[in-house]
Amino acid sequence: TRNMVTGASTADLALVLVDARNGVVEQTRRHAAVAALLRVPHVVLAVNKMDLVDYAEPVFTAIAEEFTRYATALGAPPVISIPVSALAGDNVVEPSAHMDWYGGPTVLEHLETVPVTADPSGTAARVPVQYVIRPRTAEHPDYRGYAGQITTGTLRVGEPVTVLPSGRTSTIEAIDRLGDPVDIAWAPQSVTIRLADDIDISRGDLIAPTSAAPPVSREIGGIVCHVADRPLAVGHRVLLRHTTRTVKAVVAEIPSRLSLDDLSQQPSPGRLTANAIGRVVVRTAEPLALDAYADSRRTGSFLLIDPADGTTLAAGMVDDIR
User: Residues 200-252: pLDDT tens digits?
Assistant: First the structure.
């Protein structure tokens, strides 16, 4: 699960591989759940080893229908199902001569044609500050820039912005990219922003357009995938890492845990064990500027970390900002 969460968190497409002899198993359901929760835009089901079931269409159809029902119930995007034999090369690069009943794309054909480019102007801009640049040299005696990667949206010189969580406002005086000034920058470019006003800003602060600034809160509700061997329980003190900011926090509630068998919610489990998926409520010692994960995969995600040894305990997706 930890590897799946790590990969899916930034993936444009998830390719779920199923053995045609075994069909949908627990690992298949777990991977489908993680892909759906992390809102991977495209999901492909590759039913492999079709040569070992005599390329039978009913076998493929039954597996594809079962997986699609399960993924749809989780809220995953429409699934593309492809019957393949990796050993024989059927429907991997070239269409199979053994499965004339299948008229869809091969795996490579689909991967090469699926759209993965997002419009950066479609969402509000967010710049988590990674580093404050103050060279204080003879050439740049008063230079103060705030460096970071634009996670979403577009920024322009002259645009009013708000620095969070302080709430201080200013205007973008200049944007530097690759050492040169530009009038406009967009995700996922890395830039240095200079503001018209002298504001106390440090690593972990968030720069956002004043007209579309995210809410600030000390209580976060979300779904987490628990990836550590040690359990996560109510009352545990943790570190919460959000973009470039890390704050102390405590697990206030674990309202439910997801059952992968029937997608039911088990109420008040008290703790989450390795590979479990559940809902948590976390209270932080300092305010955080948050988006819902449905709106932004970068500013709507967080990690829970063991403060004793730095082990990652869980990866979370914000869905309730209180």
Answer: 999 999 999 999 999 999 999 999 999 999 999 999 999 999 999 999 999 99
What class, spelled out in words, does domain 121-212 have in CATH?
A: mainly beta
Q: How far apart are CA 11 and CA 119, in angstroms?
A: 16
Residue 56's SS3 state is coil
Q: Which CATH number fits domain 2-113: 3.40.50.300, 2.40.100.10, 1.10.1040.10, 3.40.309.10?
A: 3.40.50.300
CATH number of the 216-321 domain: 2.40.30.10
Contact 254, 233 (CB under 8 A): yes
CB atoms within 10 A of CB 164: 22
CA distance 129 to 69: 42
| Distance separating alpha carbons of residues 258 and 278, to the nearest angstrom | 5
- How big is the chain, counted in residues? 322
Question: pTM score, two decimals?
Answer: 0.86
